[in-house]
């Protein structure tokens, strides 16, 4: 559905006398049961998977111009999705998943369901994040992480959800000074963790209109984040180190500092995947960082590096080498879907610049101080 909108295809191909594909997808979301994700965080997710699915489905409805179908009729799917928030036990997952849902609902113009019916779900999630130490439901990660990492990740995604709200200043001071908290946590995470979180931090501050205030020397921050590539082995593990390079490249891209990325940086990322044979866990999850690399190399116009023979792969192309080493039918690689997403994104980039933005995003603007009450779906 999202691709249909981005390609400008007629939605009548999905909704007609014989087919109602959006309704079918909502029905599929209804079947998602809690705590069925089989990873290192079993029992901490609750309805995280269903809530995340709703975020994607709602966005697709909005892209197709069908947002009213979510709230008109026998069921209000937006209210139902918001009701799932309190059924996600771990603060990390409630904040990370909840921020995506809240952002999409704001984008669709349904802010009233978030804070206008006697509850404020955005404040509730922020307050729940503050109970992380008390609840002792810290997430597990594939590699050891600092104590601050599971706190800063959901906070930064929530900052972006706040940026999309109709009164960001109120949320930024709910419970505590959220910008001060984010800055403090950024200083406490490790350098390799900062390569992940730096991108979220910069985007959230930019969307809040507070980037220059909070980061007076943006170049220095970006140079520090991007410069970490010389110290990071992307083949050391599939998660912490394996996806750090795509974050580094995208941070440079979005801040206009691609001058910091050179051929050695890209070669080290592209040639690191054979090293993920070191452990069974890294091997099974190799498509995860490979998908990140494919996506970001497509963004910077260097995806050809994955489709050309390379010495590190014995003369094979990296994409052929990785695919040839998947298990039979891809049954072992439980994160294989990431590669599917990257391939779809790669294909969609071929649509050309005239499809740069869909109307849903083109007609949205982030509020700024003094904007309260402004209709953000008109310019």
Protein described:
52% of the residues lie in helices and 0% in strands. With 379 residues, it is an all-alpha fold. Helix 2 (21-30) packs antiparallel against helix 3 (48-63) and helix 12 (191-208) packs parallel to helix 15 (244-254). The longest helix is centred in the first third of the chain and has 18 residues, at 91-108. The protein is globular and about 60 Å long. Residues 372-379 have low confidence and may be disordered.
Describe what is shown at a glance.
The protein has helices spanning 2-7, 21-30, 48-63, 77-83, 91-108, 111-115, 121-129, 132-135, 149-163, 168-172, 178-188, 191-208, 211-214, 218-226, 244-254, 263-270, 280-284, 287-299, 318-324, 337-348, 359-362. The chain has 379 residues and is mainly α.
Q: Class by helix and strand content?
A: mainly alpha
H and E order? HHHHHHHHHHHHHHHHHHHHH
End-to-end Cα distance, whole Å, is: 26 Å
Mean pLDDT: 94
Low-confidence stretches: 372-379
Biggest pleated-sheet summary: none
Query: Number of helix segments?
Result: 21
Say how many strands there are: 0
Strand residue percentage: under 5%
Radius of gyration: 21 Å
Tell me the overall shape: globular
Please estimate the helix content: 40-55%
């Amino acid at each position: 559905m999202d691709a249909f909108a981005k390609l400008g295809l007629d939605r009548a191909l999905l909704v007609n006398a014989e087919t109602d594909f959006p309704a079918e997808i909502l029905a599929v979301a209804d079947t998602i049961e809690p705590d069925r994700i089989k990873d290192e965080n079993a029992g901490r997710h609750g309805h995280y998977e269903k809530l995340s699915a709703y975020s994607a489905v709602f966005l697709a409805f909005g892209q197709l111009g069908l947002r009213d179908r979510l709230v008109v009729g026998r069921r209000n799917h937006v209210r139902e999705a918001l009701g799932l928030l309190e059924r996600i036990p771990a603060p990390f997952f409630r904040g990370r998943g909840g921020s995506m849902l809240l952002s999409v609902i704001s984008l669709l113009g349904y802010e009233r369901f978030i804070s206008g019916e006697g509850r404020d779900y955005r404040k509730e999630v922020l307050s729940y994040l503050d109970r992380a130490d008390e609840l002792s439901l810290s997430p597990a990660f594939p590699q050891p992480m600092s104590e601050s990492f599971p706190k800063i990740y959901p906070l930064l995604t929530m900052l972006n959800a706040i940026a999309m709200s109709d009164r960001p200043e109120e949320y930024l001071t709910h419970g505590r000074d959220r910008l001060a908290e984010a800055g403090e946590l950024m200083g406490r995470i490790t350098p390799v963790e900062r390569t992940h979180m730096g991108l979220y931090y910069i985007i959230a501050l930019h969307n809040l209109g507070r980037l220059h205030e909070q980061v007076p020397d943006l170049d220095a921050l970006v140079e520090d984040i991007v410069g970490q590539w010389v110290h990071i082995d992307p083949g050391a593990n599939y998660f912490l180190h394996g996806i750090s390079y795509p974050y580094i490249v995208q941070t440079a891209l979005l801040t206009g500092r691609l001058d910091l990325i050179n051929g050695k940086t890209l070669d080290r990322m592209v040639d690191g995947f054979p090293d993920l044979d070191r452990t069974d866990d890294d091997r099974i999850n190799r498509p995860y960082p490979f998908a990140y690399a494919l996506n970001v190399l497509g963004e910077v116009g260097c995806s050809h590096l994955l489709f050309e023979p390379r010495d590190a792969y014995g003369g094979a192309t990296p994409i052929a080498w990785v695919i040839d080493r998947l298990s039979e039918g891809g049954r072992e690689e439980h994160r294989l879907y990431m590669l599917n997403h990257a391939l779809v994104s790669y294909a969609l980039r071929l649509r050309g610049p005239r499809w740069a933005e869909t109307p849903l995003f083109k007609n949205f603007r982030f509020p700024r101080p003094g904007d309260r009450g402004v209709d953000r779906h008109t310019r």
